[in-house]
Amino acid sequence: MASIRVLVTGAAGQIAYSLLYPIAKGDVFGADQPIDLLLLDIPSMMPVLNGVVMELQDCALPLLSSIVATADEKEAFANIDVAILVGAMPRREGMERKDLLKANAKIFKVQGEALEKYAKKTCKIVVVGNPANTNCLIASKCAPSIPKENFTCLTRLDHNRAIAQITNRLGVQPHAAKNVIIWGNHSSTQYPDVRHAVVSVDGKELPVMQAIKDDAWLKGDFIKTIQQRGAAIIKARKLSSAMSASKAICDHMKDWWFGTKTGTYVSMGIISDGSYGIAKGIAYSFPVTIGADRNYSIVQGLQIDEFSRERMDATAKELLDEKDAAFSHLAE
């Protein structure tokens, strides 16, 4: 079987450190799929990245055909099949969100242009670096010859967090719950929605709202916990949530590569087509199913109540404001 070329940016960082092993081992793209790893970082991080390469070599992974560590975008993006764009300017103390938007707009403009110039037109892209939704949109706009459907951003971490909160509360295993939804932005305005989710308890599949029997919690602390989970982990750990983020990236890409199970949908940030009244042309998290052909479809026909509508629209407004701010920076 021919190797696939997988790019990870920010490859010397802590998310990549948790991510590269499962990719190279075969946990994401299949147990018989050889991998060529392309690892990109900034020049000052090359000594660290070379250490990561040494560790990957020392793992002696049979599927890892080759490793390229580079600070050169042409070398990194050349003929890639998959791009996992982790690297971004982190938010520093005292930095406002608009400052983060400005810095990352320029980074993802450059990376979008590199995708346009060097990557395969079939390349599948997931943006992880924050603000992930808007960075995804910028990269897509700067790579017009790659279908916009090939650009996604990571909200699977929030999806997994929602599953964990539900199943922990019920005392069941995470695989017992499915079909939670993350609507909108990967930010504190995101809306984790359990109105269509189900969970297996004592051999019976029940709507999550019926199983939990606590609407006040579901409308209050549950939503706040998911919205603020990243900040809570940073406060506790003094570092960001690298392990769970890398697991979510693996889940996102594995489902995209092999498809979702029948009757199950997952949350994925994609370029909106106007479904559910969400403005076209923003990168917004929707519930999707994915076929064996690696094409995803937004789950249609879900009933949206007033409580959900308000929150879905609020996170859409934030994304529209971010889009305007980011593209004004690019025009400077």
The gist of it:
By secondary structure, the chain is α/β, with parallel strands linked by helices.
Report on the structure:
The chain is an alpha/beta fold and about 325 residues long. It is built from eleven helices and 14 strands. The longest helix has 25 residues, at about 305-330. It is globular and about 55 Å long. The relative contact order is 0.13. The model has no long low-confidence stretch (mean pLDDT about 95).
Question: How many runs of DSSP E, i.e. beta strands?
Answer: 14
In N-to-C order, the SSE pattern is EHEHEHEHEHEHEEEEEHHHHEEEH
Tell me the Rg in angstroms: 19 Å
Shape: globular
Instruction: Report the major sheet.
Output: 9 strands, mixed
Number of helical stretches of at least 4 residues: 11
Class by SSE composition:
alpha/beta
The strand line-up of the biggest sheet is 3-2-1-4-5-6-12-13-14
The overall pLDDT, averaged over residues, is 95
Quote the beta fraction: 15-25%
Give the uncertain stretches in residue-range form: none
Termini separation comes to: 47 Å
DSSP helix fraction: 40-55%
Write the layout of secondary structure elements.
Blueprint: E1 4-9, H1 14-25, E2 35-40, H2 46-58, E3 64-70, H3 73-77, E4 82-85, H4 97-118, E5 124-127, H5 132-141, E6 151-153, H6 156-170, E7 177-178, E8 181-183, E9 191-193, E10 198-201, E11 204-207, H7 208-212, H8 215-219, H9 221-237, H10 242-258, E12 266-271, E13 283-290, E14 296-298, H11 306-330
Parallel strand pairs: 1-2, 1-4, 2-3, 4-5, 5-6
Antiparallel strand pairs: 6-12, 7-10, 8-9, 10-11, 12-13, 13-14
Helix pairs in contact: 1-10, 4-5, 4-11, 5-11, 6-9
